[in-house]
From TrEMBL:
Key word Coiled coil present: yes
Superkingdom per UniProt: Eukaryota
Keywords: Coiled coil
Gene that this sequence comes from: ccdc160
Stretch list, region Disordered: 1-21, 42-66, 106-132
Protein's name according to its UniProt entry: Coiled-coil domain-containing protein 160 homolog
Organism: Chanos chanos
Coiled-coil annotated spans: 159-200, 229-310
Compositional bias segments (type: Basic and acidic residues): 9-21
Amino acid sequence: MTDESAEQESSKPDSSLDARHWVEKLFPPHFTLEDLMKDVGSRSAKTRTSAAEPCPTTERFSETAEYHGRLKKQEIYLAALRDFHQGEEQLKRKILREQISWEAKETGKQHPIDVTDENPADSPSPDCNEEFHRGETSIWNEWDISQFRKAMCEVERDRRRLKMQLRYTEEKLNKELEKRKQLQELLDERENQLTFSRKQAAQQALLVKTLQTESQTKAIQINMLATEAKEKATEAAKWRTSLRNLKEETQQIKQECSNLAWEVQRLQEQQKSEMKRQTEAVRLEHEAAMQRLQREVMQVRAELSAERASHARSRNALELLRKHFNSQ
């Protein structure tokens, strides 16, 4: 900025005594520069106090990132508000001077002008080349007017520069906000991962505790099974002794069975020979009976033949006798 603007900035009165801009009336701000500075001071003091206290790594990282984001955002706001107030103050003073010059041309008197409701956009532009009538009376000479015009041009350039700076600051703020949003999303993701890891760790700890309990139970069961196995081994030794005795008895029984089998085989052979002898005797007796029956049958047949012959002779005699009686 120029030396004149620096001098005006150094001699700027209290903001409570300045006339309010028409935009401030329509859209009153929610906070002032002093409130923002107080908020920054209180937050920085709170951060310094909380930094001395021990806290978890995740909470410390979250608070630090959030604090730096707020601090960066507040610094950008402060710079933009400071530049905006400086530009507005300079513009108000230049407009007031020009309004005084115009009033002085018309009335020839110097009156204080209230620029509270005056819109800077409705005031004469510093770029316009309006000429004052040389014949009119004025308390300002040509050099003063040229100086006023130079000052107005300087104010317009400062206003445009501040407007561009404000746009750049807004873009930078949007980038910072986007970056902060990405960092916040990354932090949320890391916190979710940490929460999930803590849940898994708790589950694993519970699982380890359960496995330890089961291991103790299994150890008790193993001791009981070892004792039972010893008892079973003793009982198995007894059963092996009994089995050995049973094998000896079985061997004796097998020998007796072998002897009995030989005796049974001998008896079976004897029975077969006896059956064969009896069968032969029955066959011979049957053949003798058959021969006897055949002889009897032949005898009966002979008697039957003789009786048939006698019967035929009797029938012939009876027929002759019937014929004899019939002929008489």
